[in-house]
Specification:
mainly alpha
Length: about 190
Amino acid sequence: MCVTRAFCQRPGYAPNATAVVHTTALRSPLTGEAVESAVLDDGIDGRSIEPLSRLIGVAMPLAASSYSYPLLGAFWTILEIFLWVLWIWVLIYVFIDIFRSRDLSGWAKALWFIFVLFIPLIGVLVYLIARGDSMHERAAQDARQEDREVRRYIQDAAGAPSTADQLTKLADLRDRGVITADEFEREKAKILA
């Protein structure tokens, strides 16, 4: 029996050999309904050729023709991926904190690094318990330092206002009536000093 060209051109195919259709009753994980799956076996090498639905073009229910992936399984996979990303983020943050700590000596940093590297779960938990309170303080201190450096760079790049510019601004404020003549003279003396 030659069902398709692929079936007939298979190595070891004998035209007189009989093909056997194996049917299997399965239960759908989504609906719980009984579904039949059919596979064609040529009897030559004991292996199945291909699903019968593909050979003869019969439409089979989706649950029987492909792997069913329930919605709960999809949510579980998303949760697992999220937890792995969170774990990797915490691990990297702990390594960064170990090396940016100024209160640890080189040997202490090396010991913490080895502890967290070889026993990650316990190492991270112990590190967070022992030094977690100061992690935020170090991060805030580094952020303040970076902010000061950026402000200093911007002021240097923009250049300091000249004395003439400051006096011009003060005169403009005096002319508009924002400051009095006495305040103008006081600020002028500070600028010129």
